[in-house]
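Design a sequence for this backbone.
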């Protein structure tokens, strides 16, 4: 049975993932059940944690509709090695059938203690996963956050708390499992500094649905994804009534803005972006192609030494 193909752009990150989601929505109508779908990475030259986790969620989305997702590997061996280094193929087991149209590169992307990877792609299903994530990040914080980003002990503690809060939203609010991945990069052209990029995603009910029971009536016809994300970010809104519950994203937002970082949250058909002073190009997006769950990107810059 002939299925459909989703073609990946050369650079796959927070912005360009939208092209895959648009293709998914445009080609998805009327597809027969159990049809194979190919996600073609042949031309991909660069992918960050957000892009890799996005690929995993697109595969899960296809499987959730009874389709058969297949993955064609990038032509460039170094990209395949990097994906392997980030545990992408470990995470994709049970999601994608890998099509080996090009030879698997010889040798592995070796794990060096000097690596820029703060956390490989890691599955989040419950609180135990979050505890393990925090322990792993803390063990690597000295070599990456302190040396490369000039974080002191207090900043590292705050970073770990913020990471825990973002990940905790998945078991508490999404009614789904999810993934997280973190890496350090050098933003030479835009910033001239090191940054750490965090990507966290799930395919759950989304922020609007999570908050609808408590807040939809107050907004009436104005209740939408943008209003829901704004409430979570700025008001600490939660579907829970317990005191202290639901302030996670709001507290993370305060920390990101204090450190002149960037946070973006995509849920439903909206991506709300709070840009830093060093990147005025980042803008809110509405009327996007619908995609389930919540996709979060956080970029934190190197601190002044």
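Sequence:
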């Amino acid at each position: 049975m002939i299925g459909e193909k989703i073609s990946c752009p050369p650079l796959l990150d927070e912005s360009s993932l939208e092209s895959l989601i648009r293709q998914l929505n445009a080609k998805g109508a009327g597809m027969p059940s159990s049809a194979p779908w190919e996600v073609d990475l042949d031309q991909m030259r660069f992918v960050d944690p957000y892009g890799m986790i996005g690929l995993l969620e697109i595969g899960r989305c296809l499987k959730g509709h009874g389709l058969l997702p297949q993955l064609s590997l990038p032509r460039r061996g170094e990209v395949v090695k990097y994906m392997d280094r980030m545990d992408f193929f470990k995470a994709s087991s049970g999601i994608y059938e890998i099509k080996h149209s090009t030879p698997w590169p010889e040798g592995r992307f070796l794990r060096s203690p000097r690596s820029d990877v703060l956390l490989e792609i890691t599955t989040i299903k419950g609180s135990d996963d979050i505890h393990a994530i925090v322990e792993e990040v803390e063990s690597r914080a000295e070599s990456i956050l302190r040396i490369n980003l000039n974080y002191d002990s207090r900043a590292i503690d705050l970073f770990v708390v913020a990471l825990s809060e973002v990940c905790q939203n998945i078991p508490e609010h999404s009614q789904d499992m999810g993934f997280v991945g973190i890496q350090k990069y050098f933003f030479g052209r835009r910033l001239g500094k090191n940054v750490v990029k965090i990507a966290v995603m799930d395919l759950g009910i989304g922020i609007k649905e999570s908050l609808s029971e408590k807040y939809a009536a107050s907004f009436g016809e104005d209740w939408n994804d943008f209003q829901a994300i704004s409430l979570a970010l700025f008001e600490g809104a939660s579907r829970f009534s317990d005191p202290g519950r639901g302030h996670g994203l709001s507290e993370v937002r305060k920390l990101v803005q204090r450190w002149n970082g960037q946070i973006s949250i995509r849920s439903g058909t909206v991506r709300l972006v709070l840009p830093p002073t060093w990147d005025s190009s980042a803008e809110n997006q509405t009327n996007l192609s619908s995609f389930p769950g919540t996709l979060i990107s956080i970029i934190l810059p190197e601190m002044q030494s």
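Residues 31 and 124 are 30 Å apart (CA to CA).
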